[in-house]
Amino acid sequence: MITDINRETLLTLIEQGAQVVDVLPEGEFMASHIPGAINIPLKNLNSEATSTLTRAKPVVVY
Description:
The protein is α/β, with parallel strands linked by helices. Helices cover 24% and strands 15% of the residues. The protein has a 3-stranded parallel beta sheet, covered by helices on one side. Helix 2 links the parallel strand 1 and strand 2. The longest helix is centred in the first third of the chain and has 9 residues. The chain is globular and about 25 Å long. The protein starts with 6 loop residues before the first helix and ends with a strand. The relative contact order is 0.26. The mean pLDDT is 93.
């Protein structure tokens, strides 16, 4: 299910153990990202790349 969220909701989800996926290219990710985020560049975002994510936890993609 895709849902838009605000900053406060994001922070709450992170506190609850959500997985944060940043889809920026690696260079941009290295320059700036949310602490604890996982980098999966958009062009690589597929079922194989996301297989390391825990299905029982929420996933936030930005």
